[in-house]
Each structure stands twice: as structure tokens, then as C-alpha cells.
Amino acid sequence: MSLVTLLPFIVLIGAMFLMTRSAKKKQQQAIEMRNQMQPGSGVRTIGGMYATVKEVNEDTVLLDAGPGVELLFAKNSIGAVLTDDEYNRIVHGIEHDLKSDADLVPDDASSLTETDGPAADAAAPSDGASVDLGKKDVADEPADDTPADQAKTDAQPKKTDGDTEAK
Question: In angstroms, rounded to a whole number, what is the distance separating the alpha carbons of residues 77 and 61?
Fold first, then answer.
């Protein structure tokens, strides 16, 4: 057999070795992460539930999911051990690491619409009355017969008694 025919088999065996090696590395990291769990740390289960570790045993973990809710999970079901900042950000919505306090977005848009200066005073109604943006009624408009209005009425067919000129 020549080296050219053995080359594809060697490449396949090498790829399989590298894939199993990376999988074993990930498993070892997960085992180390689970062994470093301590009571009081925040975790996320593989099902997506966030809880606080209350007690760690050899194969199980007791989790505190809320007031009066304690759940017993297998250690293998812990997907990630979270830092305190990350756990508080996700569960409680608390941000600790704000970069600048100057560029915060307000909770309501009222501060975004307020303007100061003479242009704002001229645009705003001075008497405090609300502006009516609705349609006007036909009765409020002045009635003037223009030739266009008369043409519309002439174009409409006139009703007759039934006598027609065509026979």
C-alpha cells in the first residue's frame, strides 16, 4: 500500500482524536465548575431555572428558588455557576457596573419633549386651550353654491314618473 491511499485514513483518525480531546476538555471544565459550587452562589440549571445554592452534597445540590421553595437537583443538571453581578443582573435586574451616569435614558419621554426658549413659547398655545385636530362638520362650513357644486347636481340623473322618451 502506498502513502497516498493511507493518507485519508490518517486524517480521519486525527480528526476523531481532536474531536474527542476537545469534548473531554469541556467535560473536565464542567466537572470542575460543579465542584467549585458553594452555598450562596447563583446557578442556572440546564432547564434554564435560576436559583441560589443552599447546600452541596456529593451527587446532589439543594437549590433555593424563592421564598420557601427548595429544590433538590442532581449536580449534573447545573448548567452554569454565575458570578454575583451576573446573577443579580439576570434575576433582580440590578446593574452594578454602569460606565457613565451622564448618558442615562430617562424612564419617561416627558423630559425629551420639553424645550426651553422663545421658539417653544411661540409654538405652544398661550391661552392653555387644547388644539382641536378633528374634522369640521358640514353645518359649520359656509354654504356657497359654486359652479362646481351645480355641475355635480346636474350630472346626477333626475327621477321621473316613469315616462321615457325611448320606446
Answer: 9
Helices (H), the chain: 3-35, 84-87, 110-113, 118-123, 147-155
- Residues 80-117 as b or e (16 or more Cβ within 10 Å = b): ebbeeeebeeeeeeeeeeeeeeeeeeeeeeeeeeeeee
Q: Using alpha carbons only, how large is the chain's radius of gyration in Å?
A: 39
Reported as type and span, the H/E element at residue 52 is strand 50-56
Residues 21-54 pLDDT 10s: 888 888 888 888 888 888 988 999 999 999 999 9
pTM given for the model: 0.46
Tell me how far apart the alpha carbons of residues 167 and 162 are, in angstroms, rounded to a whole number. 12
